[in-house]
């Protein structure tokens, strides 16, 4: 029964900390779109508490409101009581998942994705090889020409159209090494979290991450045995599998003996920082989870710390750049100023602030696929603000946001005028001044 599962999973003390002030309402995209109390953080917390207090039976409307939440956590930084809403919604989704009866095909897709694919990086690389073959063999061109993609849901077709070139090899295979020395004096020994999707669809960004880190004085360790961070699992109610992945990552990075664990994806970094909460009821792993989480940083934090602002050589030509921040980087990792500081230090880049750049773009993991209407509305709103900046480059710091921004540029007819770029790739194009460049090649 869902009610019992919710009572067992929900942190009642945190639920009770909500004082119903409503400060979170204006920050919530689903409340802004619908105007419904039940589609707001305060409303969802009230629903959770009503179930936990035994005054309400959770029905399909309850489940729908929980599923409509983006999990963007924009409600957290504005909450005066410090309610950890992200944890509450994940606990709720875990309970829902435990009792929900999916149709057979949904069960099969979830099983393949969450158990057999994302946790197995070797299989992710094999998928990358197949995608690469599809993209390079002419099949993709034929499929597009014949209009086969029209049978897919609109959002999936849009994603296929902006899919970057896949790779069947990860960063470790590209470099042929697991430890890459610092350029010049070693300042830190850094463990690089390469991600599951990042290492297949954004392998060039991962390579640029190593270049930037080594040039900043970091010895980079690509810890062996690391796996997917578990964010997609946790956000989809598969917390037990997320815990299994967390244990593997903790083991891999502990063995690597690093000072810092660096991520170049806001969604992954925020999840890695949550391992201490995820494993708080596991006495065997909790201490090492705390060690692990306390060492996780976003690459922008490390670059601001280690690179003098006047050390960047600059972009080859003058460009206007704007920044759409990743929700989990901003609201989860609390990294807000560093990416902007970096963009402002690049010669030849004119930083233009994006109105409501702190609002979710609608990507939110697989939200744009499972809640296409709300995601589409949020994206259209976002692209209106993006177009107003008249920027040449739209910078993001998470792979899901990057794909969503590429889709948005296409959808808004801005192709040819603007490109979406990961901050790491932009910085790699503004390489450091003489004497500090790494000569790493794939
Ligand atoms: S996580 Fe985002 S969508 Fe969900 S309640 Fe909070 S602000 Fe609203
Ligand atoms: S801001 Fe915090 S305390 Fe106030 S209603 Fe929202 S969740 Fe509750």
Polypeptide structure, described:
The chain is α/β, with parallel strands linked by helices and 442 residues long. Among the domains are: 2-99, Fumarate Reductase Iron-sulfur Protein, Chain B, domain 2, CATH 1.10.1060; 311-428, Rossmann fold (3-Layer(aba) Sandwich), CATH 3.40.50. It contains 25 helices and nine strands. It has helices at 2-9, 12-16, 29-34, 41-52, 60-68, 85-99, 104-117, 121-136, 139-145, 154-162, 171-175, 198-201, 203-215, 231-235, 239-256, 266-273, 275-278, 286-294, 299-306, 327-332, 337-345, 367-370, 372-389, 399-411, 423-428, and strands spanning 179-180, 188-192, 218-221, 260-263, 296-298, 319-323, 349-351, 393-396, 419-422. The chain has a five-stranded mixed β-sheet with strand order 1-3-2-4-5. The chain has a four-stranded parallel β-sheet with strand order 7-6-8-9, with helices on both faces. α1 (2-9) packs antiparallel against α6 (85-99), α10 (154-162) packs across α24 (399-411) and α19 crosses α21 (337-345). It is globular, with a radius of gyration of 22 Å. The mean pLDDT is 92. One iron/sulfur cluster (SF4) is lined by residues 18-24, 41-42, 45, 75, 79, 81, 83.
Summarize the structure.
It holds the Pfam family CCG. This protein is an alpha/beta fold.
List keywords for this structure.
about 50% helix, 4-stranded parallel β-sheet, 9 strands, Rossmann fold, about 450 residues, alpha/beta
CATH topology of the domain at 311-428: Rossmann fold
- Give me the secondary-structure category: alpha/beta
> Under the CATH scheme, which class of the domain at 311-428?
Alpha Beta
Number of helices: 25
Each distinct ligand: iron/sulfur cluster
Number of strands: 9
The unreliable regions are none
Mean pLDDT: 92
Distance between the termini: 53 Å
> What proportion of the residues form beta strands (DSSP E)?
5-15%
Q: How would you describe the shape?
A: globular
The CATH architecture of the domain at 311-428 would be 3-Layer(aba) Sandwich
Biggest sheet layout: 5 strands, mixed
Residues in helix, %: 40-55%
Oligomeric grouping of the chains: single chain
């Amino acid at each position: 029964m869902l009610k019992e599962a919710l009572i067992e999973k929900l942190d009642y003390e945190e639920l009770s900390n909500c004082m119903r002030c409503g400060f979170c309402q204006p920050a919530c995209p689903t409340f802004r779109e619908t105007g419904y109390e039940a589609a707001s953080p305060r409303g969802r917390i009230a629903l959770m508490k009503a179930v936990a207090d035994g005054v309400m039976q959770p029905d399909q409307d309850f489940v729908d409101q929980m599923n409509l939440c983006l999990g963007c956590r924009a409600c957290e930084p504005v909450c005066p009581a410090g309610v950890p809403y992200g944890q509450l919604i994940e606990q709720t989704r875990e309970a829902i998942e435990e009792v929900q009866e999916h149709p057979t095909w949904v069960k099969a897709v979830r099983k393949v994705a969450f158990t057999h694919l994302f946790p197995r990086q070797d299989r992710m690389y094999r998928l990358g090889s197949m995608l690469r073959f599809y993209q390079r063999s002419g099949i993709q061109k034929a499929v597009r020409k014949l209009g086969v993609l029209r049978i897919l849901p609109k959002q999936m077709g849009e994603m296929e159209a902006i899919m970057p070139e896949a790779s069947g090899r990860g960063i470790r295979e590209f470099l042929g090494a697991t430890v890459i020395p610092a350029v010049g004096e070693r300042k830190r020994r850094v463990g690089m979290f390469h991600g599951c999707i990042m290492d297949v669809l954004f392998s060039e960004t991962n390579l640029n991450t190593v270049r930037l880190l080594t040039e900043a004085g970091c010895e980079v360790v690509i810890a062996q045995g690391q796996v997917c961070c578990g964010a997609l699992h946790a956000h989809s109610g598969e917390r037990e599998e997320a815990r299994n992945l967390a244990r593997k990552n903790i083991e891999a990075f502990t063995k690597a003996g690093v000072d810092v664990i660096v991520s170049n994806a806001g969604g992954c970094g925020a999840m890695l920082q949550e391992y201490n909460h995820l494993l708080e009821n596991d006495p065997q792993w909790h201490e090492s989870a705390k060690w692990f989480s306390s060492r996780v940083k976003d690459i922008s934090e490390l670059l601001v710390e280690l690179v003098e602002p006047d050390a960047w050589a600059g972009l080859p030509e003058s460009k206007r750049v704007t920044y759409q921040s990743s929700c989990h980087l901003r609201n989860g990792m609390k990294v807000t100023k560093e990416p902007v500081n970096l963009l402002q230090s690049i010669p030849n880049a004119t930083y233009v602030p994006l109105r409501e750049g702190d609002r979710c773009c609608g990507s939110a993991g697989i939200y744009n696929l499972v809640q296409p209407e709300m995601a589409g509305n949020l994206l259209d709103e976002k692209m209106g603000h993006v177009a107003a900046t008249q920027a040449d480059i739209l910078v993001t710091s998470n792979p899901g946001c990057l794909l969503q921004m590429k889709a948005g540029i296409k959808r808004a007819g801005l192709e040819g005028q603007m490109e979406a770029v990961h901050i790491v790739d932009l910085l790699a194009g503004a390489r450091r001044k003489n004497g500090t460049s790494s000569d790493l090649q794939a």
